[in-house]
Design brief:
The protein is α/β, with parallel strands linked by helices. The chain has a single domain (17-155), classed as Rossmann fold (3-Layer(aba) Sandwich), CATH 3.40.50.2020. The protein has helices spanning 18-35, 51-60, 111-121, and strands at residues 2-5, 8-16, 42-47, 66-74, 85-89, 99-107, 127-136, 148-153, 157-159, 175-180. The strands form 2 sheets. Strands 5-4-3-6-7-8 form a 6-stranded mixed β-sheet. Helix 3 links the parallel strand 6 and strand 7. Helix 1 packs across helix 2. It is globular and about 55 Å long. The chain starts with a strand and ends in a 6-residue tail after the last strand. The structure holds inosinic acid (IMP) and magnesium ion. Magnesium ion is lined by residues 46, 49, 104-106. Magnesium ion binds next to strand 6.
Amino acid sequence: MVLSQDQRVWKKELLISREEIHSKVEELAREISSDYQGKDLVLIGVLNGVVFFFADLVRALTIPVKMDFVRAASYGSAMSSSGEIRFTKDVEIEIRGKPVIVVEDIIDTGLTLVNIMEKIKQREPESLKVCVLIDKTERREVDVPIDYRGFHVPKGFLVGYGLDFNEEYRYLPDIFVLKEARGADA
Ligand code: IMP
Ligand code: MG
């Protein structure tokens, strides 16, 4: 499978299988369920990339939770972000005085999440933690405290299981790394 964009051709290589994703999600759900037993936990998912991770995580929890979503429009390019954001969908349920976990698909520079956290903090939750499926560290620019981490992937552009490249590939059940195809590869 190849995709042309600005003259370059990409191929995708399997990085994390659906089975690996499944057991990691169960592990994270066990941890969260035990940490928030008896609490009125609110999960806030960051759209759109988080959809499958969020749905799988919530259904693997053994505690009741409330859920809402934010959608942050960033002003970055397709493969990176400037970090400057505005919410095109904001939190709508009451989170004041409640324990909140923000759920993200992937953290790269960290700028998006730091901005999202700032905005959510203004609503004065009792606590605010972060759960991320993929912690991609090589380009990190700001310190983001990650409380629940799925996979550590140093670098690479990932697609599938909600992650997109120009809105392509989100539907794939596994996670792939996009590589530039050269010569005979292409
Ligand atoms: P950050 O602000 O650099 O941490 O960027 C985070 C956002 O950029 C994520 O929520 C994704 O939307 C996007 N992003 C960063 N890396 C990837 C990737 O490897 N695949 C798909 N989207 C990515
Ligand atoms: Mg995202």
